[in-house]
Write a structure and sequence with these properties.
6-stranded parallel sheet; single chain; 7 helices
Length: 263
C-alpha cells in the first residue's frame, strides 16, 4: 500500500509518522522545496513540483500510489487543485487534511481581508508599525506603493523561516524564526517593537496562534487574510485521525494495516 502525502505542515509530518509504522504501508511525503532545511520525516521524501495536473497524475501511476492525502498549507491552493484533479483522473482515492481556521474571541479586534492586496490596503488606517507574519512569499504586495502610497510611511517587522527575496517594503526589519511560539514571547515581541497592527494568514492550528492571544491582551488590531476555499469535489477533514479512518474506508479490503507498537 503506497500513500502519497502532500506535506509541509505539522499535520503532514504526524500523519506520515502514523502511516510509516503500519505494516505493509509505504508513505512518501512530497515537499515543495521552499524551506532549505525541513524537519525530519518518516518514510520516503521527494522535493519539488510535479509539472501540473498531468505530471502529478503520471507520478501517481508510475509510483503505483494507492491514495493521496493533501496535507499542505491551507493557502497552497494550486497544488490542492492539482491533487483533486490528478486523483480523479487516475481513479485514486484522495482526501484533504485541513486544520480548522481561527475564530475571533472576546476582546479581539479583527479585520478580514480576502487577499494580501486587501490586507495591504487596510494597514494605513490601522497603524504605523506592522508585524507581518504572512511568510516570505507575497511581500511585494506590501512594497507596492503605487497601489497604496501610504505603505511607504509604515514600518514592517517581517517574520519568516527563510530570508525573503526582494522587493520588500521600504522600511523593513526581518526576523528569521520558526514556530511554535509562546504567548509570553509574542507579547514581549509586540512590546519591544511597539507593534500597533498585526497581519497574518488564517493558517489555523496552535503553533503560531500565540500571536493572536498576545495581540488580544495588548489590544492590537489584527488583519486576517482568509484562506481560499477547497477545490470543488475535495473531501475535507480536520485532523489525522479522521483522515486515517477515511483512508481505511476508501481502500476497503486493502486497508492500511494495524499500527505496529514496537517493543
Amino acid at each position: 500500500m503506497h500513500v502519497l502525502v502532500l506535506g509541509g505542515t505539522t499535520e503532514a509530518r504526524r500523519l506520515a509518522a502514523d502511516l510509516a509504522v503500519r505494516p505493509g504501508v509505504r508513505v512518501t511525503t512530497s515537499l515543495a522545496g521552499r524551506v532549505s532545511r525541513p524537519a525530519a520525516l518518516e518514510g520516503d521524501v521527494r522535493i519539488g513540483g510535479f509539472g501540473g495536473v498531468d505530471g502529478l497524475a503520471a507520478w501517481l501511476r508510475d509510483h503505483e500510489v494507492d491514495a493521496v492525502v493533501d496535507a499542505t498549507h491551507p493557502f497552497a491552493a494550486t497544488i490542492s487543485e492539482h491533487a483533486v484533479r490528478a486523483a480523479a483522473a487516475t481513479g485514486i482515492p484522495s482526501v484533504m487534511l485541513r486544520r480548522p481556521g481561527w475564530r475571533p474571541q472576546p476582546g479581539d479586534h479583527w479585520h478580514d481581508a480576502a487577499s494580501l492586496t486587501d490586507a495591504a490596503a487596510l494597514l494605513p488606517a490601522l497603524g504605523r508599525r506592522v508585524f507581518l507574519t504572512t511568510g516570505r512569499l507575497g511581500l511585494a504586495t506590501f512594497a507596492d506603493v503605487r497601489a497604496v502610497p501610504d505603505l511607504a510611511e509604515l514600518h514592517f517587522l517581517v517574520r519568516s523561516v527563510e530570508p525573503p527575496d526582494p522587493p520588500l517594503p521600504r522600511h523593513t526589519e526581518v526576523l528569521l524564526d520558526r514556530g511554535p511560539y509562546t504567548v509570553e514571547g509574542e507579547t514581549a515581541l509586540l512590546r519591544e517593537h511597539r507593534i500597533d497592527v498585526l497581519v497574518t494568514k488564517d493558517s489555523g492550528g496552535v503553533a503560531t496562534a500565540a500571536k493572536l492571544t498576545a495581540a488580544r491582551a495588548l489590544s492590537v488590531p489584527v488583519v486576517i487574510v482568509r484562506r481560499p476555499r477547497p477545490p470543488e469535489g475535495a473531501t475535507v477533514l480536520p485532523d489525522g485521525k479522521s483522515v486515517l479512518a477515511h483512508l481505511e474506508e476508501s481502500l476497503g479490503e486493502r486497508g492500511l494495516g494495524e499500527q505496529s507498537h514496537g517493543e
